[in-house]
Amino acid sequence: xxxxxxxxxxxxxxxxxxxSGEVTGLELMERAGQGVVEAIxxxxxxxxxxxxxxxxxxxxxxxxxxxxxVARLLAGKGWTVKVxxxxxxxxxxxxxxxxxxIWLADNQVEELTxxxxxxxxxxxxxxxxxxxxxxxxxEGEAFNVASHMSGRNGDDYSDSVVAIDxxxxxxxxSGTVLEEAPPSLGHPIFDQQGQEPRxxxxxxxxxxxxxxxxxxxKFGHFVNEGPSVCGQVVVKDIGLxxxxxxxxxxxxxxxxxxxxxxxxxxxxxxxxxDRRKPWISRFGFVRCKKASTKGHKYTHGHALVLSGGxxxxxxxxLAARGALRIGAGxxxxxxxxxxxxxxxxxxxxxxxxxxxxxxxxxxxxxxSRFNVVCLGPGLGLAADREGLVLEVLQxxxxxxxxxxxxxxxxxxAEALFEVLHENCVLTPHGGEFARLFPxxxxxxxxxxxxxxxxxxxxxxxxxxxxxxxxxxFKGPDTVIAAPNGLCSVNSAHYDxxxxxxxxxxxxxxxxxxxxxxxxxxxDPMQAAETAAYLHVxxxxxxxxxxxxxxxxxxxxxxxxxxxVLR
Length: 566
Ligand SMILES: NC(=O)C1=CN([C@@H]2O[C@H](COP(=O)(O)OP(=O)(O)OC[C@H]3O[C@@H](n4cnc5c(N)ncnc54)[C@H](O)[C@@H]3O)[C@@H](O)[C@H]2O)[C@@H](O)CC1
Ligand SMILES: Nc1ncnc2c1ncn2[C@@H]1O[C@H](COP(=O)(O)OP(=O)(O)O)[C@@H](O)[C@H]1O
Ligand SMILES: [K+]
Prior knowledge:
alpha/beta, Rossmann fold, 2 domains, 11-stranded mixed β-sheet, 7-stranded parallel β-sheet, 21 helices, binds ligand NAX, binds adenosine-5'-diphosphate, binds potassium ion, metal ion binding, transferase, NADP
């Protein structure tokens, strides 16, 4: 797992490093430029022996400063380098100014305009306009050049753009490409699809082939539009590790303002393969060697999954199967009378109990061996369903609430928040999230016109705090947050891209995975993180053509590959 940083955290780390006197800003800038050049030759090894032509677009801050370093290093390797500057050279910050002057001693810098940029073709384009300092949408010639590069005039540059830190215009906290404020006419206007018009964005789709960032990836590389515009993300070490101290536990504890909330990116593949990384313990699994063989099925927990009525039972069975495969000792489906036969015909290892309403559920839950309940998948929205949710929450069991159990509380989420407890996990997709947290969804979907923009990470953290329990906000960029601010992102992008996971019922299986892991005693955050991670691993291993039923069946092979016991 990798720590994810905000732009402000990155700046704080850099400032702490410089303040220590052990490194200067200029040295960091040099290392950043070297990192970019290294990444270029790793991506295009053929360029090592064949110098190319390159346009370096430098902006008015330190991102531009990195650009001047890259220009100098590539020129030193025989490349033909053209440098454009957007902004006033007299206002460059000190380190960027130093590198500008070093470059200017033997070379030229041209003011950036679309016209000048388009005069000649280049093999490579370095985008060093804005990085972590982006605070408003691109304007003027920066906008014109960025939108030209992203295909406005029909030319596709995306295979030859290397973005330093970020494609310029991308907010590194929210993963949103900042847009101009939409036209204000004093009253709302709508387009033909009934949508309010949005401001212009320089790009919305793939912009760079490669994005080189420093020290740690930022949230914006992994959420919202980030993955579609970054191409691929390479992280280069610039020697800041000792200033990036989590929770201030090590000697030389940094000031409180620098202690970072624990935000991680869940196990990208290379780290998982590295046996030295202790990721397994965070995920709540044990390595085969250390596993206890003493347990029996009741020590592995008993999950209860509530089924919907006649004709709506499949979702609960998917969740139940997920819970059983991932390791619950026993799983029982509780179904209304009318749905008993339908369930009975399709369940074997999973048990079945009739359960017609809140009273029967209360009786069932008197059996304390049911240590986790999952409800929502296929549950339906009939008035009596709410009673089931309340009954489960009052029984104070570990609980996973998904789908209809969330939608049931649309417009009256407070009634749900009052009874939720810390042993619960909510698993909304975007629509369900908006029903429970309409104000947060509105902020999230509002045009992002200033940086740092409100992000899915902010929204999920706020939601978890408000609900008082773990919230897992689904999507290709699944964000998981606990009320105490712990947060992680489970990304299905880049080398973990698995678009075929967007298939009917896959969310039901995810709810089941979380349920099964909670049955095994994982705490809600661990269970949600582990389940989300394994869900994507199952999809990756199975590949295209996947349907929801395949996900639980893929679990044994994934656990075997990861060399862990349930
Ligand atoms: N933080 C670190 O540890 C390091 C940062 N470095 C580089 O420094 C960058 C950050 O530098 P800066 O903080 O100077 O910020 P940027 O270079 O990203 O932005 C420069 C300035 O432009 C202005 N600005 C923001 N949006 C604008 C817009 N749309 N139009 C016009 N002007 C706008 C802001 O005043 C901002 O401070 C990083 O992205 C990275 O490339 C590296 O040199 C090495 C180390
Ligand atoms: N493009 C995508 N790539 C990877 N995973 C995705 C993508 N879109 C959705 N998912 C995942 O698929 C699952 C869909 O869940 P959900 O929306 O509840 O669907 P359903 O109700 O049909 O089960 C979630 O786990 C979500 O994170
Ligand atoms: K950039």
